[in-house]
Structure formats: C-alpha cells, structure tokens
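Researcher: Here's the sequence for the chain we discussed earlier.
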Amino acid sequence: MEGFNEHEEEGWNEEINHDDEEVADEDAEEEKVKRQIKSEEKVKRQVESDDPDLVELKIRRRGYDFSHANDDDSYFPHADDWERDGEIIGRNTHLKVLEFSTLNGGVAKEDVEKFFRGVANNRSIQKLRLYDCNLFGGELFSILIPFFKSNRNFECLEISCCVLERDGIDLLASVLVEFDSLKEFEFSSYGDELQEHIQALAGHSGLKKLILRGNSVSNLKITIAGWRTIFAFLQSPHSLLEILDLSMSGINDEVVNSLTNALVNNNKLRELDLSWNGHITATGCEAFSAVLQNPGSALEKLDLSGNSINDGTVITLATSLSNNRKLKELILESQHAITINGWAAFSRVLCNTSSIMGTFHSNHTLQKLDEYEGGLPADIRSLLRLNQENSKCQAARLKIIKTHFSGSNIDLQPFIGMELQVMPRAIAWMGRDGSGKSTTETNGRSLLYQFLRTKPELFERAAEGQHWEGLEDSSA
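Model: Thanks. This is the structure I predict for it:
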C-alpha cells in the first residue's frame, strides 16, 4: 500500500481484522438477545393462556450462561409484573415443574414475596426448584405453606446454591412438618446447622430420593445424631428410599459406620453417593463390604470416588462382590493411586480362571468401576464391557469360551465322554448366536468346529438316520 512500509501495512490490516471480529461478535450477541426476547415473549404467552404444552417453566435472569439448558421454557418478569405473573402461574393447571433463579440478587424482596403469594395458589406443580436465589431468611417457605399443604400433586423440593442461615433453617423445618407429600428432597446449599430440618423430614414416609450435598466451599453441618435420624429411614421396614446422595457433605468414618449398620438389612436403596468426603478413610470405605455381602441388598450404584482408597480397600470390596448379583456400578476414582495388585482382585472376581465352574460363578453384573475407564487395566475394561453388552448368561458363556477354549490349544477334555443325552445342549451352547458385539463369539464357533472334528461318529449317526434322545430339546 502506497505510503506505508511493509510492517506498518501488516499492523494496519491486523487492526482492521480485529475491529471486524469485534463487530461480528457484537452482531452475534445482539442477535442472541433478540432470540431470547422472542423466546421469552412466547413462553409468557404460553403461561398466560395455560398452554398444555408448557409443563416446565424457568424464572431466571437473561444473560446468565445456561448453555446446557433449554431456553425455550424460561423468562424473567419485568419490574412491574412480578405480582401479576405470580397470580397467572397460580391459576395455571398444566405446569409440572417450576424453577426460580434470581442469581442471588437484583430483585426486591417485596416483588419476590408478591410473586410467590400468587404461586402459592397453584395446584398442578409437582416439582419446585429454588436455584441460586435469595430466600430472604427462609420467609419464602412461610409464604408457600398453602401451596405445600393444599397441592396434592406436589412431591419434589430442590434447594440448590442458596444461602440459609439459622433462622431460615428453622423456618424450613417448621414448614416441612406442615405437609407429608414429599417423594424427593434436595438441599445442596450453604446452610447453618441442619438438625431440625432433617428431623422434620421424618414425617415424609413416601420419600424416595434424598440429596444432602455440600460443596467445595462448605460441608453440611449435621451432627452424628442428625445423621442417625436420616439413617433411621433406611432401617424402617416401611422405607421407600431408593436414592441417597451425601456427596461433599463432610461425613467421616463414624457416620459411615452408622450408615452401613443401617444398610446391612436394607432391601430398597438402589443408589448411594458418598463421593468427595475427605474425612472418610480407607477403613470407612471397607465398611461397605458387609453391605455388599447382604444377599437382600438392592444397591445398584455405590460412588466412593474422591475418598481415601488404597489396595487394601479395593481387595476387600472386590472380595465382597463375589456373590453379589445386584451392584452394577462401584465408582472408585481415588485421590490415592490404586496399583495393579488392587485391580487384580477385581479381575479375579470378574473372571475366576481356576476352572470352568469358577468362571461360570464369577461376577457378571458389575459394569463400571470408574467414571473414566482410561485409568483401568485393559483386562478389567474388557471384562466390564462383556458384562455391559450381554445378559448375565451370555457374559458367563463368553468368559468361559475366552478363558478355557480359545487359542491354538483348545482343551476339549470337558466334553470327552459326555453322555449323548447332554450332547445336543453342549453343541447348542457352543454355537449359540450371541449379540454379535463381542469378538469372543468367533471363539465359540471355533470351539464348535474343533469339537465336531473330534466327533465323527455324530455324523455317522446322522447318515444312518439315528437320533439322540433329548435332541428335540436342544434349543432350550
């Protein structure tokens, strides 16, 4: 360019390009805001018309990064509309879920109170989610008492990323005793001593899901007596509790001991999350071996990740799964390295190679040991995948074939001298067409081929028109 040297021209072009990028970003942001406004207007019309297609509504401030969420069901009332919008929601008959989030500020207390006085008249909402908002010392709960007591459809209360001081906890506890319809309750917020509200939950006998989660800043403040109140749910023969999440809650080995005692005879709880409780030692984790050995246990998922787990813990837990036919996920991601010696215990449990019957009676239920399988030895990943992709019966068959009848030297001794009445079932077992997801299927067909080569008399009988007794049942 005339009048510029090479370096000046290059700098000038870079500045133009940067300005163009800024303009493009501004245009994209402006377009995004326009789409949000249009979407909010549509949602507001749906609320006002009691649209049966709108079953979930999020009241949240525009501009917050909810990139993972659906913006087609959210809006934020204008300054003068809080009371009116609350009354409209109160009359709505199709809403099932209401989320309220003000990002802990920016809305006057009187506006929020007016809004929830209207919401309190609603009788269709099943789930109320209070997320990252100012609860004004728990006063919102008192305003919602008519909603809690008279809404027979209401069954789930979630309080997440909010702050509740002592007075707010007391108010929440006093409200929880006013009704008994909760099936799900979540408290994952900053709070003072939670003893009272834990005891208040005892009246909700239909509770199926309980989440009491701390966070990276503060653990929950619950005494051992409070935890024992919670665990009394699990000991009751009438307990319906299926999911219990106590992650990052600050519990220690004493609490774990009380929990495992309550679980020894429990046959309802399906999922238990104790992840990232820094005070649980290897001894506490090992205490779950008694739970996993309970033949009546319904536990399908146990998350112990982020706790003090070592080889001794892994060996103890693996051994306890020898006869467990329920647990599908045991998450052991640990701050402390688990060596090959520890993982070897799971390898033996997943596939006992000592004999065919040992392999047959191995664990074919467990499907996951880590949220990220990359840290697991290759043989364990392979065995877990067999369990994931096949029925228990098929997983057992594939492990037997892979362990005892694969490679260049297939040992057919177990089939030598087999009674003819049993022969058709053995042939069907070897050649069974599985899911097709495992390369071990080819080993099964190879085994069948090798076996038939050693039994020419079978074909001789067929040529002579003879048959074996029991052949008609070979497909069973």
